[in-house]
């Protein structure tokens, strides 16, 4: 697939700048692959759109306050985005601007003193704290890592600290929210249980690769960075049991989809997985574990949109996005959702 085939026109006014008044008040576009049809719903309708016995899997990774403003020795502003712990004092981080963050450069963030001690081939820095731990720095001075298309991304609000996090978030580690999960409320989860829908949780820590647009001319030539993942044995068994009994597996988000498909063998059986999800899902991928995909609207030329096109077909997704634009749906992290059946 040519990269240009993943472009679409989106009026800037449709990029959601704030969450819906309540999580499940978001709109939900039902996309039916078999019928090639769309239906406008709201997220609160989800229990009636799923079937008793469906096996719904969420990603319970917690977003960390990864963005840290700093200053260099000359007092100039530096932005750090910490994304992977090496030890208590050293983490990998994206930096901006990179020219001010050469090896040996010292920075100040709040009361913390930092030093750049390494540069990785793909650009991130190894940042060492000289007077404490990085985790303490994040707790004291870290900000929610809102995406840059949200105008206030450099100055998140108290509402962002709550709403850029799922209600079921547990282990910390993501530098972007698994956004399909932002629409769930405790009440909605209770209604799903009453409907007879199983709910299970795995963990995939969303890494900085989610920000990186595809630059290869052919989508299939893109390299997607690994992400840390944990698919517990109980979740793997629940997915295998559902599929053996002819029940659907519903993945909440592209991150959950990547985790499950990474853990699935050629025969479709899902095994426990603790380590890294390395699979890049592009058109031509045969889905072995996931039957239904619940996901937000994604950026053009992104690996997330590639996954959705692989699942539903590019033509149907292009039509669905065109419908959503015309109907005034809200796009991206704080936007509305799709349910692809």
Distinctive features:
341 residues, QueA-like, 8 helices, 17 strands, nine-stranded mixed beta sheet, 2 domains, six-stranded antiparallel beta barrel, Thrombin, subunit H, alpha/beta
What is the CATH superfamily of the largest domain? Answer: QueA-like
Provide the spatial order of strands within the biggest beta sheet.
2-1-17-16-14-3-12-13-15
Taking the sheet with the most strands, its summary is: 9 strands, mixed
CATH architecture of the largest domain: 3-Layer(aba) Sandwich
Q: How many runs of DSSP E, i.e. beta strands?
A: 17
Compressed to H and E, one letter per element, the order equals EEHEEEEEEEEHHEHEEHEHEEHHE
How large a portion of the residues is in β-strands, by DSSP E?
25-35%
Cα shape? globular
CATH class of the largest domain: Alpha Beta
- Helical percent range? 10-25%
Using only C-alpha atoms, the radius of gyration works out to 20 Å
Low-confidence stretches: none
CATH structural fold name of the largest domain? QueA-like
């Amino acid at each position: 697939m040519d990269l240009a085939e993943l472009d679409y026109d989106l009026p800037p006014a449709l990029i959601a700048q704030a969450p819906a008044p309540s999580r499940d008040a978001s709109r939900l576009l039902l996309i039916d692959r078999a019928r090639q049809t769309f239906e406008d719903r709201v997220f609160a309708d989800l229990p009636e759109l799923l079937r008793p016995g469906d096996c719904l899997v969420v990603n319970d990774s917690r977003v960390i306050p990864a963005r840290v403003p700093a200053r260099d020795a000359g007092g100039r502003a530096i932005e750090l985005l910490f994304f992977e712990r090496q030890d208590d004092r050293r983490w990998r981080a994206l930096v901006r601007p990179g020219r001010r963050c050469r090896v040996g450069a010292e920075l100040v963030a709040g009361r913390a003193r930092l030093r750049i001690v390494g540069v990785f081939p793909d650009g991130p820095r190894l940042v060492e704290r000289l007077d404490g731990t990085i985790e303490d720095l994040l707790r004291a001075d870290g900000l929610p890592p809102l995406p840059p298309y949200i105008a206030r991304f450099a100055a998140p609000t108290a509402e962002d600290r709550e709403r850029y996090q799922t209600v079921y978030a547990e282990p910390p580690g993501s530098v972007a929210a698994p956004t399909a999960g932002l629409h769930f409320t405790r009440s909605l989860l209770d209604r799903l249980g009453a409907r007879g829908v199983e709910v299970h949780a795995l963990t995939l820590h969303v890494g900085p690769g989610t920000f990186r647009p595809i630059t290869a001319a052919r989508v299939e030539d893109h390299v997607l960075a690994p992400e840390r993942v944990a698919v517990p044995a109980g979740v793997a068994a629940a997915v295998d049991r559902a599929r053996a009994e002819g029940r659907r597996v519903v993945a909440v988000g592209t991150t959950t989809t990547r985790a499950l498909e990474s853990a699935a063998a050629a025969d479709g059986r899902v095994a426990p997985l603790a380590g890294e999800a390395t699979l890049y899902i592009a058109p031509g991928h045969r889905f072995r574990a996931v039957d239904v995909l619940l996901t937000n609207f994604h950026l053009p030329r992104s690996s997330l949109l590639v996954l959705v096109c692989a699942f539903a077909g590019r033509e149907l997704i292009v039509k669905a996005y065109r419908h959503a634009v015309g109907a005034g749906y809200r796009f991206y992290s704080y936007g509305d959702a799709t349910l692809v059946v």
